[in-house]
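To whoever is covering the structure queue this week,

Two jobs came back overnight. Logging them here so there's a record in the thread.

Job A:
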Amino acid sequence: MKVSSLRHFFLFLIFTTGQCDAASDSDAVLKMDEALLTVQSQMPGSLLVTYTSDYCYKCLYQPLVSVDAGPGNVSVVVSTPFTLTLKVTPLKGSSTYCSLSHLFQEAGHYTLWVKPGVGDLKSNVTCSISLEKDPNNTYLPLLVAALVLALLAVLWVSVPFLSRCSCTSKLRKLICCNESRYSMEREEAVGETCVDQHQPKSSRLKSLDTFRGFSLMVMVFVNYGGGGYWFFEHAPWNGLTVADLVMPWFVFIIGTSVMLAFSSMRRKGVTRLQLLRKLTWRTVVLMLIGFCFINYSPRDGLLSWSWLRIPGVLQRLAFTYFTLSLMQTFSPCREIPPKKEIRWWGPVQDVLLFWPEWIFILLLEVLWLCVTFLLPVPNCPTGYLGAGGIGDNGLYPNCTGGAAAYVDRWLLGDNIYWHPTCKALYHTTQPFDPEGVLGTINSVVMGFFGMQAGKIFLFFRKMNYSILIRFAVWAIVLGILAAILSKCTRDEGFIPVNKNLWSLSYVACMGSMSFVLLGVMYFVVDIKGWWGGQPFIYPGMNSIFVYVGHSLLGFYFPFSWEMRFQDSHWEKLFQSLWGTAIWIFIAYLLYRKQFFLKI
């Protein structure tokens, strides 16, 4: 998910490109995820040093720096997130002197020594990399932040636990009921903890709100930059990072919520026409918010038409919600059968009773597979799933996204995303929209998995361990499917895990993870009551407000500020965590005021 697409592109350009600015000396000012490399040549002829990132799949080598006839040296700034493979060749000629891979570390100073050997010059050239200045510990800010958050979590849990009382122990009664030591406000708070534990609990799934809030806060954190760490940004093409997990979780939650909400409305006697009005209104409002927000820029006015883009995150979520809601509105199975009517096929009734929906979903997936792998794309191989550019040995530079991008350009023209995550690493020139048309098909499939979780909740009500077993089965089945399709590799599978394409393996992998996370939260929050979902439950119950609010205000003070120290991750990580914490606090205040923005 992106708040400022252009801003994220420039950040990613800095963090993932192997070549940066040439440095005149060893005192070059380095920023986050940068190191200084000095090439020391003792060769009699001029050299060319090229590079490729090991994260870039079958990418062509790109020029890094040239060195005049030796002895001589030139310094250059290189990126540190991914391992770089360096190749040293004559400036004029096709032979290779040497090739070596190295993972440079932030703020380190390195020297690449190129020395001639004895005898045959080409076969005896020696290349080595030495460390001249120790690098920063890139992950120390993360470790400190994790320890601080862990300490806050312990305090959050322990303080209420120590103050909790049942009014049965004399010591606790003394703490709970001594009016001379506590104010009226404190007594009321204690009274709430001393209520009869046998009172009926709310039927609302706190774990679902907690899951939604957790997903939302991860999304806010990565949208604020994620501390500048590459694994909190979207993957360049294939593979998964933390940022790639968030939107599928949201879609899964939408499916679960639709199933539970529509079941509740039917029990209340809401007619099909009323359901149609409600889902249509909500879809239109979400799409309008998404369209206006994605094209908003303070510098260009309310609607920055120069950056007009039709697809977007909220637009996709709205369409997914609309499709899933229509499926439920016209579903032939409108009531959950009583347990006494369960027959031999009872263990799979949540699947068999909704067979028309399964047929529809299977047809959608067949459509995605056929268009993706059978649609002819001009000047591109049929079924191409790569990033194009310099990837795949540079054979398909203008084929970024294959059929998915071709369909988007055919339907939407140029009103799509021109700065995809693969642009910096793969040097692509074609637009590609991660919220495009074909990916929306698999978004519906992902939401359907969430609906399946809702059906499990409904069909196995009050059978908690049966629910957990069903969740585990679905997680295993989808996990095996993802493993088979991807061959447990990043780039070599039949269908690689790819968030940009919303590939089938990506949907299966995220579906498996969603069942696991929701199952764990359901066990901890709703079954055992070990955790109340705080603080994630607060933004989870006000997700639209927090999402739109952080998107519009996130890059203004006090949520963020212009950084003064850009040579390490310390300030950037603090800024990302600070902005996220403020939105949690705002959501908590709204929760206390019982204000919930609903559409």
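Job B:
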Amino acid sequence: MTSKEYLQLHLSLLLAQHGEIGVLEALAPLLGLPSADLRTQLDEVLKGGHAGLKKRARAASVGGSIETLLAEHPEKADLLRKIQARFVARTYLPELKDVRRFLDRHGQPSSSIKKRDGAFGKVARQLANLTTDELSSVLAEAPSSTYSSLGIISDEILGRK
């Protein structure tokens, strides 16, 4: 039995045991998507429009999940948008290792994150748990230097200051 056949068997059992809605509601948070967005993506795949779907889905899920998060926390929305702007400009958590450290400190798994740019959804969910005062202090922090750790190492090796 191939791994794809094995996966289909497991999914069939899950669907039989929990039903389609139950499986989708359990899967959506694991993918970081609202159930409605997951349903829309599945409908697109079933219609045969899955070429390029992964890229569109990832962009939509990050934007959509952040907008959903902002709607859930309107009192923090402005602060979260400012932090997002700093994240995009790489003045807040400028490197992937910084993002991973942040998530690890807040008890979230970070090993699945492969690219920094796609990680703001997870970061934003953790930031939304902070108080407005804590978010303000995050914004008050001096922007991280854009000088990478590799630059510091190369300067040390070459004896530059």
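Note for Job B: The chain has a mean pLDDT of 80.

Please reply-all if you pick these up so we don't duplicate work.
Q.
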